[in-house]
Amino acid sequence: MNHMRTFILLAGMTALFMGVGYLIGGSGGMTIAFFVALAMNAFSYWNSAAMVLRMYNAQEVNARTAPDYYGLVQELAKNAGLPMPRVYLIDNPQPNAFATGRNPQNAAVAATTGLLNTLNREEVAGVMAHELAHVKNYDTLTMTVTATLAGAISMLANFAMLFGGNRNNNGMGMIGTIALVILAPLAAMVVQMAISRSREYEADKGGAEISGQPLALASALSKIAGRAHQTPNYEAERNPATAHMFIINPLSGERMDNLFSTHPNTENRIAALEEIARTMGTGRSFRRMEASPAGPWNPSKKPGPWG
């Protein structure tokens, strides 16, 4: 169901983009818009992962520099039937993580030092399994395309305001152009966020299957959500277009499961994971797991570049 919903929303965003191009310049404008979108998506396809990792100053780690963290991802990738992704660490106190890359063969996963220092090993496994589920489902590519299309729609709307307001193109006129400038980017943003939310639920389910511990992932989500909005992520605040990539929204003030949220409500996600746990035969509430001892992420045992 989520895959079909994502396809429908992507088709709607593409139609919106082509429609904006048509309203600005007729069939010629629609053709130009198509090729602009094609070029932007091609650039994003090849360069988005490196750009995002550089944006957050992520440092690549390996079995020598971060044996516990790297080994855990290696084990989970094997469970998921995925090639080993590149593993990165971000020196940031906010607990969070994301995945990027155009396909499973060119994927990367990144966790913050705050995540490794906040969660126990089982919870970290749940989070990284969630990110690997994104990789397996090609969500990193899907969200790159939607972000690119949303940006292109906003660009076209601004172009219409600058150059199309004095002409009555296709019957729009000044009022129609102003409406286009306001409504088209808003509609694109709503569609982008709806796609992001649907993919998060699917990745939670996939992460529970890869790690085999849905309650550990539920516990991790609860801890991350409780701390993320208390610990600023300044890089994310400067680059809000990347917020949808993280397992929990890294920006301040996003708490509601509504049209303008990049992530589902955390309590809704926890409830879904608890239902998965019951289906898998583990009926404990995640709240009983929160007192479990910390894993190898204890500050006194921090290996590698975060020591």
Automatic annotation (TrEMBL):
Its main location: membrane. The keyword Signal does not apply. One of its GO terms (cellular component) is plasma membrane. One of its GO terms (molecular function) is metalloendopeptidase activity. It is found in: Cell membrane. It holds the Pfam family Peptidase_M48. Its EC number is 3.4.24.-. One of its GO terms (biological process) is proteolysis. The chain crosses the membrane at residues 7-24, 30-46, 141-163, 175-195. Its cofactor is Zn(2+). Binds 1 zinc ion per subunit. Keywords: Cell membrane, Hydrolase, Membrane, Metal-binding, Metalloprotease, Protease, Transmembrane, Transmembrane helix, Zinc. Residues 72-276 form the Peptidase M48 domain. It is a multi-pass membrane protein. InterPro entries: HtpX_protease (IPR050083), Pept_M48_protease_HtpX (IPR022919), Peptidase_M48 (IPR001915). It is an enzyme of class 3 (hydrolase). Belongs to the peptidase M48B family. This is Protease HtpX homolog. It comes from Terrihabitans soli. The lineage of its organism: Bacteria, Pseudomonadati, Pseudomonadota, Alphaproteobacteria, Hyphomicrobiales.
